[in-house]
Amino acid sequence: MSLLSTETPNVVQLFQSLDLDLLWHPSLSNLPPTEQTILHERLVSGRQHLDILVVEGSILHGPDGSGMFDTRLGRPKRELVAELATQAEYVVAAGTCASYGGFGTRGETQAGGLQWDRGQKGGLLGPDFVSRGGSPVINLAGCPCHHDVMAGTLLALTSGFPLPLDEYNRPQHWYGVMVHQGCTRNEYHEYRIEEQDFGQKGCLFFHMGCHGPLAGGPCNKLLWNQRSSKTRVGVPCFGCTDPEFPPPYPFFQTRNIEGIPLQLPKGIDRAHYMAYKGMAAAAAPRRLKDRITDI
Amino acid sequence: MAARKTYEIPLNRVEGDLEVRLDVDEGVVVDAWSAGTMFRGFEKLLVGRGALDGLVVTPRICGICSTTHLLAAAKALDMIAGVTPPPNGVRLRNVALMAELVQSDLRHAILFFLVDLAGPAYRHHPLHEEALRRFEPLRGESWIQAVMETKKILEITAMIAGQWPHSSFMVPGGVAFMPHSTELLQSRYILGRLRSWYEEQVLGCRLDRWREVTSAALLDEWLDESPAHRESVLGFFIRFARSSGLDATGRGHDTFLSFGSLDLPDGTDVASPDGGPHLIPAGFARGTEVESFAPEFITEDVSHSLAALHEGALHPSEGATDPVVGEHGSRYSWAKAPRYRGLPAETGPLAEAIVAGDPFFRDLVAREGAGTFARQLARIVRPARVLPAMETWIAEVAASDTEPMYHACPPIEEGRGYGVIEAARGALGHWVEVRGGRITRYQVITPTTWNGSPRDSTGTRGPWEEALVGTVIAEPNDPVEAGHVIRSFDACLVCAVHAVDLRRAPGALPPLPAASRPR
Predict the structure, then answer these.
(1) Closest Cα in chain A, distance from residue B179 (Å)
(2) B1 — contact with chain A (CB < 8 Å)?
(3) Is A29 near chain B, with CB under 8 Å?
(4) Mean confidence (pLDDT) of chain A
(5) CB atoms < 10 A from the CB of A268, how many?
(6) What is the rounded distance in angstroms from the CA atom of residue A78 to the CA atom of residue A102?
(7) Which residue has the higher pLDDT, B135 or A7?
(8) Which of A121, A130, A246, B7 gives 20 to 30 Å between its CA and that of A17?
(9) A123 and A41 in one domain?
(10) How far is A112 from chain B (nearest CA, A)?
(11) A160 and A42, same structural domain?
C-alpha cells in the first residue's frame, strides 16, 4: 500500500516504463487461483524468467519450527519463498519484517528475515546467499518501506545502475543518512531544547524516545507522501529501519542515565557528547529558549 | 452424490491471505468454511510493553487502515487516562481517519472488487470489454485514476500525521501537532480535487443529486436519468450487477452491527444522522429493527476455534489469545467467533447505513435482501456521506488553529479501557489493561473477525460463511462468484488473522470435525 504513494515515477509509469511485467502481486493482480498455481510452477521450473522477487512480511517459522503459521494450500510459505529466490535475478526484502524479521522475532510466531535474523546474518536463505544477478538480498528496511525507496530500487535494478549496500545490506543511498537529517526540529536538537510532552516545540530525542539520531533512513530526506515526516509533526522516530526493530523497551520515552540518553547519536563518544551538549545548552539563543523558532 | 465436490480456494486481493473451503453440489455452494492462513500474534507481543505502545504496534497490524487501529488504541488510552481531547484534537483525528477511509473505500471498490469483472471469468460477458477498459490492473482508466486520486488524498493524513501509513500521531489527550493554517488551506484544495473526481467519475453526479436517491425505485430512475450516471463507476457497477446476477447473491444472517465512529466535537456544525454523538451512529439491527449498542454484549466464542481453549464465551476484556496445536474435537479454525447478544453480525458500510436509518439502503434491503450488491453499493457511496463533514472540520480547524489540539494527561500507570470505532471494513475494538505502566492484556476484535468468523457453539456459521451458501459457481477453477461474495465484506485478513489460522500439513484446512462434516 505504501508503494502506491510513489510520485516520480508513479506506480503506473513505473511499470509501463520499465519493460517489466508485474507477474503477481497479492493486492493488485486478478489472476484466477488455478492460473496463479500454474505461474508458480513455471517460475519454479525456470520456464518463466523472474527478474525481481519482492517479498513483504516476515518469514514465520512457528509453531515449533514447523512454518505452519503461514501457509499457501497447506505448504509453509517459507518453502515457496526459498524456491522462488533461487530463480530470481534479484531478491528484494520490502520492509523491516522481510529484511530482519521485525515483529514476532521475539514471539511464538518465530519470525525471521529473508537473509537476516534481526542484526545477525542468516535468515531463511542463509548468510552466503547470492541471487543469480550476483547480489545478496537487498533489504529495504522500514515499517513500512518508503514508497520512493521501493520505486527507486526497482528503477536502479532494471536500469543496471549499481546500488551499493551498507553494513545491513540496505541501499547506502537511502539508509546512509540518519532520520535526524532534515528534521525541522534540528535547531532545537542542536541547542538541547527539549520537548517534555506531546505538542510542544522542541527536540524529541532527550525525553520522548526519538530514534532519529540513531537510525538510518530517508524519512526527512525524501519525506512521506510528498509532504512530511513523523518527527516534523511531533511524533518520535521509532527506529523502524533498524535490524533490531521493534526494540524490547517501551516507545515514547528515552532511557537515560542522569538525564543523558543511554543511546547517544550513532557513533558518538559519550564524554565529548556531554561536554558538547552542556556548552550547546548554554549557547542556546533566546529564539529557541522561548520556542519562537517554528518547526 | 457424485456431483458434490469440495474445493479449497486461495483468494488474493483481500489484503491478506484467505483460503475458503466450499462444498459444491450441482454447481451450488451448500456449505462453506473460511480461514486465514497466517497467524501473527500481535496481541501477545504487546503484553509487557509500555502503556502507550499500542499506538506504535497496532497500526502495523494493517497497511490499509493503520490510522483506524491508531484511533482505537488512542481512545482506549483516553479512557484509562480519563482525558477528553479538545475539539480540535477530535477534528484532526477525524479528518486524518476520514482521508484513510475514503482512500480505502475507493481502492477497495475499484482495485479489489471491480477488477474481478475484468478477469477471464467474464470474457464472454457483454460488458467485459468495458470492464477491461476501466479496471484492468495498471492499465484501466478507472484503475489508474483511483491510484492517483487516493494517493493525493492521503497527503491530508500526512499533513496531520506526518506520514501514511503507520503514524502514531494520536496520543491520549488528542494529537501531537497542529498543522499550519497554510497546510489546512492546501488540504481543502486536495479534498476539493478528490470530491470533483468522485462526483464526475465515480458517482457521475453531484453529491446533492445522489442524496435524492432515497428508495430502490429512485435508484432505477437515477440510472436512467443521464448517460453520466450510467457511465460512471457506480453506474457501471449497477449495470453489471443487474446483468450478471450479482444482485441475487451473498445474503448473510441479516444482523448488522456498528460500533459508531467519528465523534462530533463540541461546537461543530456537523450534525449526526440520528442526533447522537457520532457522524456514523452506533447500533445493532436485526433486519432493519435497530436497537442501541452496548459493548457489554460482545463475547468471543471459541467453541470452533483453536485460538484458546477456555469454556464458554468471554467478553474481550477477559479474553485471551493462546493458540493450541493439535487435534481438539470440533475446533477447525484459529479464528474466534465474536458474537453480539450471542448472534453473529455483519459489519461494514451497509451495516452502518442500516443502523443509521438510511432510507435508501433500508428500502433496498427490504426489497432485494442484504447481499453482495447492497454491501458493495454501500461502500462505493459512503464517501458521499463522509466528504462534506471532512470539509467542515478542516474549515473549523483552520478558523481556530490557535485553540489546543492536545490536553496533557498524566503517565498511564493503571487501568482498563477500550476503544470501539468503525474502520473502513466495520466494527473495530481494542480492549486494553495496564498495570504498573505496562500492558498486561490487549485484545483486538477486527471487522473481519466479525464477518469472517467461524461457527459458534450453536453451530451457526459466521456471516460470510453463511453468505456463501447458495452461491452458484460456474467454473470451480475460477470461482469468481464466491470471490464477489467475500470481497463485498471487504475482507481484511491481515487484521483478522492476527488471531486466526489453521495449522496442519498438508491440506490447507484441517479435517472437518465429524459434527460439521457434510452428510
Answers:
(1) 8
(2) no
(3) yes
(4) 93
(5) 11
(6) 16
(7) B135
(8) A130
(9) yes
(10) 12
(11) yes
The pLDDT score that the predictor gives to residue B12 is: 58
pLDDT in tens, A91-119: 999 999 999 999 889 888 899 999 999 99
Checking B291-299 for CB contacts under 8 A at 24+ apart, the result is B293/B257, B293/B258, B293/B259, B293/B260, B295/B259, B295/B418, B295/B420, B295/B429, B297/B340, B297/B341, B298/B338, B298/B339, B298/B340, B298/B429, B298/B445, B299/B338, B299/B339, B299/B342
B306 close to B324: Cβ distance less than 8 angstroms: yes
Q: Which residues of B touch A15 (CB under 8 A)?
A: 138
| CA end-to-end span of chain B | 10
Both A203 and A243 in one domain: the answer is: yes
Mean pLDDT comparison of A33-42, B224-233, B468-477, highest-scoring range? B224-233
Q: State the sign of the Cα–Cα–Cα–Cα dihedral B393, B397, B399, B404.
A: positive
Average pLDDT over residues A220-240: 97
Residues A181 and A131 in one domain: no
Nearest CA in chain B to A236: B168
Percent of chain B with pLDDT over 90: 72
Tell me which of 3.40.50.1000, 1.10.645.10, 3.90.550.10, 3.30.420.40 is the CATH number of domain B5-401+418-516.
Answer: 1.10.645.10
CB of B495 less than 8 A from some CB of A: no
A126 and A231 share one domain: no
Report the candidate in B516, B498, B512 with the shortest Cα–Cα distance to residue B62: B498
Count of domains forming chain A? 2
Of A11-20, A74-83, B265-274, which has the strongest mean pLDDT? B265-274
Which of B19, B50, B406 is the closest to A253 by Cβ?
B50
Residues 200-259, chain A: which have Cβ within 8 Å of B? 219, 224-235, 238, 240, 246, 249-253
> Does one domain contain both A187 and A168?
no
pLDDT exceeds cutoff 50 at B482: yes
CATH classification of the domain holding A66: 3.40.50.700
Residue B111 C-alpha, separation from nearest chain A C-alpha, in angstroms: 7
Could you give the C-alpha distances from B369 to B340, B348, B373, in angstroms and in order? 21, 16, 9
Domain with A263 in it: 177-295
Examine the fold and report which residue of A144, A173, A202 is the final residue of a domain before the chain moves on. Answer: A173
Tell me which chain A residue has its CA closest to the CA of residue B479: A32
| The residue count for chain A | 295
Same domain, A131 and A113: yes
Position B497 pLDDT exceeds 60: no
Average pLDDT of every residue of chain B: 88
- Chain centroid to CA A206: 23
Of B358, B484, B355, B364, nearest to B422 (Cα)? B355
Distance, C-alpha B271 to centroid of its chain: 23
Q: Which of B40, B69, B95, B181 to mutate to test the interface with A (most CBs of A within 10 A)?
A: B40
| Closest Cα in chain B, distance from residue A68 (Å) | 5
CB B502 within 8 A of CB B509: yes
pLDDT at A286 over 50: yes
Same domain, A123 and A153: yes
Strands annotated E in B119-222: 170-171, 174-175
Q: How confident is the model at residue B3 (pLDDT cuts 50, 70, 90)?
A: low
Which residues from chain A sit within 8 angstroms of residue B169, using beta carbons? Answer: 230, 233-235
Residue B320: the pLDDT is 67
Amino acid, single-letter form, for residue B504: R
pLDDT, mean of residues A2-31: 84
Last residue of a domain, one of A156, A173, A190: A173
Tell me if chain B has a CB within 8 Å of the CB of A196. Answer: no
d(Cα B151, Cα A23) in Å, to the nearest integer? 23
Residues 4 through 43 of chain B touching chain A, CB cutoff 8 Å: 8-13, 15-17, 19, 37-42
Q: Is B278 helix (H, G, I), strand (E, B) or coil?
A: strand
